[in-house]
Amino acid sequence: MTKAAAAEQVVTARLRSGRTWQEIADTVGAPVVWTTAALLGNHPMSAEQASSACKLLGLGDDVAEALRLQPYRVRDEAVLSDPTIYRFTEALSVYGPALKELIHEEFGDGIMSAINFQVDIARRPHPDGDRVVVTFDGKFLDYRW
């Protein structure tokens, strides 16, 4: 089974079971954003994590095996056209150069790691409508010459 086919089964089973991504993450013992990304095929899960998720969702060993596979992390133009995902691309297009300048000013010549990295999402009440708060927390990696 491919990771994409496993992801489809996970999404369907989650909806049918009424489980939230947070409930699955709690069962797996990992952060909700990472767990969701892994179950959608973007990270390999350990045997224990995959087994726990599949048991909770009533999925078979074939799905658990696929969830353990190393993913291909590629750019998918179809996914990038989704309105929610496109807004992240748009925000980085507008603010990316400023963030780069500010990172260099604060830390020096280097980059924020997307490997040694955590991401979180939260809701913040606001009078004009609730706000989505996304936190990227990556290790600074300096360029060494």
In short:
With 145 residues, this protein is α+β, with helices and mostly antiparallel strands. The protein has 7 helices and 2 strands, in the order αααααααββ.
Description:
It is a single chain. The protein is α+β, with helices and mostly antiparallel strands. The protein has 3 domains: 3-67, lambda repressor-like DNA-binding domains (434 Repressor (Amino-terminal Domain), Orthogonal Bundle); 75-108, no CATH class; 109-145, Cyanate Lyase, Chain: A, domain 2. The chain has helices spanning 3-17, 21-28, 32-39, 47-57, 61-67, 77-80, 83-107, and strands spanning 110-124, 131-142. It has a two-stranded antiparallel ribbon. β1 (110-124) and β2 form a beta hairpin. α1 (3-17) packs across α5, α2 packs across α3 and α4 (47-57) crosses α5 (61-67). The protein is globular, with a radius of gyration of 18 Å. The model has no long low-confidence stretch (mean pLDDT 95). InterPro entries: Cyanase (IPR008076), Cyanate_lyase_C (IPR003712), Cyanate_lyase_C_sf (IPR036581), CYNS_N (IPR048564), Lambda_DNA-bd_dom_sf (IPR010982). It comes from Krasilnikoviella flava. Catalyzes the reaction of cyanate with bicarbonate to produce ammonia and carbon dioxide. Keywords: Lyase.
Note the main attributes of this structure.
2 strands; 145 residues; Cyanate Lyase, Chain: A, domain 2; 54% helix; 7 helices; 434 Repressor (Amino-terminal Domain); alpha+beta; 3 domains
